[in-house]
Amino acid sequence: MVRELLGYLARRLVRLVLSLLAVSVITFGLLQLVPGSFAQLSDVGTTTLGNSSGGADPSGQEGAAGWLEYFRFMGGAITWDMGPTYKYPQSTVEGLIGEAFPVSLSLAVPATLLTLLVAIPVGMLAAIKKDKPADYGSIFVLTTLQALPGYLFALLLMLILAVGLGWLPVRGWAGPEYMIIPVIALAVQPTAMLARYVRSSMLEALRDDYVTAALAKGGSTRTVLIRHVLRNSLIPLVTVVGPVFASLATGTVFIEVLLGIPGLGRLFTLAARTRDMPLLMGTTLFFALILMLVNLIVDVVYGLLDPRIAHQRRLSGWRRPARPAFLVGSMHRKRSDGGSTRAGPRTASNRPDAVRVDSASSDAEVSG
Amino acid sequence: MTASFGSSATLDGVQPTAHDPQALLSVRDLRVSFAKPRGGPTATVVEGVSFDIEPGASLAVVGESGSGKTVTMRALLRLLPETASVTGQAMFGGQDLISLPDKQLRAVRGAQIGMVFQNAMSALNPTRTLKVQLTEHLRWHGITDRAHALERAIEALDRVGIPEPRKRIRMYPFQLSGGQRQRAMIAMAIVARPKLLIADEPTTALDVTIQRQVLDLLEVLRGDGISLAMITHDLGVARYLCDDVVVMRHGVVVEAATVDAFVNSPSHPYSRQLLRAAETVTALDPATSRGRTVTSTGEAGHHAAAPTGHPHQADGPGRARQEPFERTTDLVAARDLVKVFQVPGGEITAVRDVDLTIESGETVGIVGESGSGKSTLARLIARLIEPTTGALEFDGDDALTLSGQDLKAWRRRVQLVFQNPYASLLPHLTVASNVAEPLKVHRVGTPASRRARALELLELVGIPETRADQYPRQFSGGQQQRIAIARALALEPDLLVCDEPTSALDVSIQGQILDLLQRLKAEMGLSMLFITHNLAVAQRICDRIIVMANGTIVESATAADLFGAPQHPYTRELLASVLPIHGSRAVAGEPIGTAALRDEPELDLTGELVETAPGHWVRSPG
């Protein structure tokens, strides 16, 4: 088991490196294709962060072969030394990322925890009270919240908590009290999405035969809910929480810019606006790295939580389980491979062969 | 009570009013209705059902889909969704299960009444080990503590014949084979030693050979003093295992009798209809090609009057197969077909060295259990998938080198009928358009002529013109299959490949579809390749039958030879697994003890196919 896991991790890491290379080539290629350059942007003037140092093209030789520049950058990136940015020649790309990432992370972790803390109970309640006022009410509220952009909440919270009541600072980044408004604002949409996900996941689990079987064994509703339903319906949640966390950890442009938080999102917008090649390449690669690492962690954890997944991977050379598409797609839940085996018998008719297909395919995998 | 069924005399006999004091479970006037969400009208599913189960008895609740049998049994333990409202009484151990407070009801569930479900794959929690699922309720009921619970669970697994129970109890359900899973679920139901076991179609999802094992296990458990209430649509199963029968239709008990009385002298017309529709295997004497049912002396008297015995053999096109074949050219000739599927981490040989010929006008059946490669073979013949190696000739021409327009033209000659008719019809087209679709694809005729042809075909399969513009979902399963057959016939194919066309249908509908196929075959001179797991269906419709296992041919013979003189042990085992409806239980042989269940011997298929009699090929021992 441990050896298999290590082999799987090794294969995934190789794939991760290849993906990062692809991302870098695509990003760089696009930057080369776009007309204009950092140097020509100098006449645009100053930006919100400091003075424009403008003027000379920091890349030195005008018209040097693009790919040389690419290799120079990538050579540095491998050793976490991406050199100075065009815009701030005195600070390095890795230095800026190193400063911004902890800021974004310190928002992402509490926001994700808050999301889970609210979404799971709300989703559960809605599922158990299906078609009752509590269900309709929570679904209405959740759908509304999901439809509203997060920065709107940031503005509302600023108006109420900071401007109106004066309890919190309006904007900036100078202590824990500055975190409250952004964390709540960041958590609203993911909470709404996750709660709906938990609800549908629970409803699906509630329809499963093993729930009836557990009740038929004499379990109380509460015991069965906790021991069988909740556990199984939270497993697929891992696949959604991972990407949510990754998206928060790589910075959220609107909130950070609006609230003056020096996180990764703001850094990225700055790089994109000024076409600062090293900074753009650096942030893009860093984003890609974070996303892929989170995906990898999700897949490993998923395999540990659901024995069927690890089993299927063993057979299939540890292929990634199908996952719900990030954010938008997750409402049309694609269940993991494991989920589909469970869905099989239910959709099938109660005649021999409908079920037979399912048991045959799983039997073929099992022997041994 | 529906007006169309039963005289009041019958119903009085069926509906006792007073509770039977001796009975283990005594159900009176059980009614179940479901409320539609948002205050719509309620739908009554069970309308006044009464029956008794004596201690140690076994009762079969039989009926077709939608008869309310599952709802009835679930209502007894109040396992229905909240929208259901249940009235009536169900006395069990001096308590009325229907009005019992929740807490006391929970003490009955699992501890005194165990429940077995149709599909173990879904009734066992996929993410919990057997240990958790077999022991948790022992602790809920306070029967034993954790340590003893484990021992008892291992004992239960041993009782149901799971090898190495100490090791397997730590496994997850998906790590067991299908038969083991089913037995593990039964172990879960009996580990608390209930007095009554309610089994809902416990063998329907299983292959016939495994079905026999599970039924024998249930028989063994009855010996341990557990009463049994079994829901089934298979009269053979009811006959094999149960003492009493309750026949349900439309939520009403139409007949309640002992199994013998039910089989030999059914009193209700619907019972007679069910018995007529049930397909049974008939042992044919190859010398005379005359039917002889595998039934007992008790039935022999009946059959003396009608020597053909089997109702479907008396007349109709089925009789044609008993004439000697006229030698014609082979329509299909497949040689050494091999299909290897590449799967991650290796390959699976789904079909291995299969030779197959289908003569013009012949129906060739392929029977086998799940995973035997029969559907893959059908898809190879229809060229839906390409063989890895081998040759396929159609009407004397090589069918494997066809491509482009030639292949498209060839496809007109081979059409398919699938198992699930609804899934194979386009839901957004009317049935007439569905039937006309192949004509459109092959650009045959004008829209008007295509429609005319579609109506003609629908008429042929018994769908009136007035319904031609309705959508597939508005038809019943049997009608949908008729429409699918009409569509397959639209291009006037030479070969019709039917992949389990009746196995998703109720028995009475199954008979109608088989009649239709036989009639069409005779009228249109079709050749058929008929895939089925059901030996009785194969016997009824096929001229020649090929038995497959593990992707290869085990035995191949005319229907008469195969059923009259089966030679390979696997074929004999398959035939023995079919449970006869008529006759005494002894016919089916002694129950297989749990010790015997433990061995699942590997089938030896390494030998060569040998022709033991003209046209009768058997794989020799390797």
Provide an overview of this structure.
Chain A: It is a multi-pass membrane protein. Chain A: This is Dipeptide transport system permease protein DppB. Chain A: It is found in: Cell membrane. Chain A: The chain crosses the membrane at residues 12-34, 107-128, 140-167, 179-198, 234-259, 279-305. Chain A: Keywords: Cell membrane, Membrane, Transmembrane, Transmembrane helix, Transport. The complex is a heterodimer of chains A (368) and B (622). Chain A has a domain at 95-274: MetI-like fold (Orthogonal Bundle). Chain A has 368 residues and is mostly helical. Helices cover 69% and strands 0% of the residues of chain A. Mean pLDDT of chain A is 73; it is low at 43-63 and 315-368. Chain A has 15 helices and no strands. Among the domains of chain B are: 119-193, no CATH class; 281-413 and 493-564 and 604-622, 3-Layer(aba) Sandwich (Rossmann fold); 432-491. Helix content of chain B is 35%, strand content 25%. With 622 residues, chain B is of the alpha/beta class. In chain B, a hairpin with a 4-residue loop joins strand 11 and strand 12. In chain B, helix 5 crosses helix 6, helix 17 (431-441) crosses helix 18 (447-460) and helix 18 (447-460) packs across helix 19 (477-489). The longest helix of chain B is centred in the C-terminal third of the chain and has 18 residues, at 507-524. In chain B, 51% of the residues are buried. In chain B, the strands form 5 sheets. In chain B, strands 18-19-20-15-21-22-24-23 form an 8-stranded mixed beta sheet, sandwiched between helices. Chain B has a 6-stranded mixed beta sheet with strand order 6-7-8-3-9-10, with helices on both faces. A 4-stranded antiparallel beta sheet of chain B has the order 2-1-4-5, with helices on one face. At the A-B interface, helix 7, helix 8, helix 13, helix 14 and helix 15 of A face helix 3, helix 4, helix 5 and helix 8 of B.
